[in-house]
Write a structure and sequence with these properties.
Length: 213
């Protein structure tokens, strides 16, 4: 028998102001699913305490704790679970083709943009200096890939208020969190893409964003 969450109960998500956690929070707000958000002090290694490692041996956030103690790790797994417990609004796709189109744009946002920003900041930030060799060339390459993929994204937008279709999808959540991350590290290349920025401004006025701030 599959696990069924009672929407009247409270789930807890262990949270930190970073893109993957923000993506999940926007998704949950769009679906009007109630979650208690538990801030985690990553800087002071709170995820490495025995209690936290018992909940999530990976030592990462976000992770979701259900009322019965079940733990769901990784942002995409959490999103799949939330979609499964509340069908409306549908945000992962109804038909096979819808699911594929949403996945295309979502993967472009995450793998083509977010990951490149992560590579960039890992190679320039003193915070990551003790994690391994840093390279100015690698940072430049990551930004170049980011810019190239921004153009692909610009050409992929088929919606007006939303990236694709006439409703919010996980792709909107992923891309919005990507751009807030870009702004936080001083990357502004996305500002030169008119369709992308028009979407960003419109989506940023949604209740899910205001609630998440």
């Amino acid at each position: 028998m599959g696990h069924k969450q009672n929407l009247g109960t409270t789930m807890k998500m262990y949270d930190y102001p970073a893109p993957n956690a923000q993506k999940v929070k926007i998704f949950a707000h769009e679906k009007e699913i109630s979650i208690e958000y538990i801030p985690v002090d990553l800087i002071n290694h709170e995820l490495r305490t025995p209690e936290m490692l018992n909940k999530n041996p990976m030592g990462t956030v976000p992770f979701l704790e259900l009322e019965d103690g079940e733990i769901i790790r990784e942002s995409r797994a959490i999103i799949e679970y939330l979609e499964g417990i509340k069908e409306s609004p549908n945000m992962l796709g109804k038909s096979p083709l819808e699911k594929a189109r949403i996945q295309e744009v979502d993967r472009l946002a995450e793998l083509g943009l977010m990951i490149e920003l992560a590579h960039y900041v890992h190679n320039i930030s003193p915070f990551f200096a003790d994690k391994g060799p840093q390279s100015k060339e690698a940072a430049e390459m990551a930004l170049n890939c980011y810019k190239k993929n921004l153009q692909i994204l610009e050409d992929s937008i088929t919606g007006d208020e939303f990236l694709i279709f006439d409703r919010p999808t996980v792709a909107d959540c992923t891309l919005f969190s990507t751009f807030t991350f870009a702004e936080s590290i001083g990357v502004e290349d996305q500002n030169g893409f008119s369709k992308t920025m028009a979407w960003y401004k419109k989506f940023g006025k949604r209740k899910s964003i205001e609630t998440e701030k």
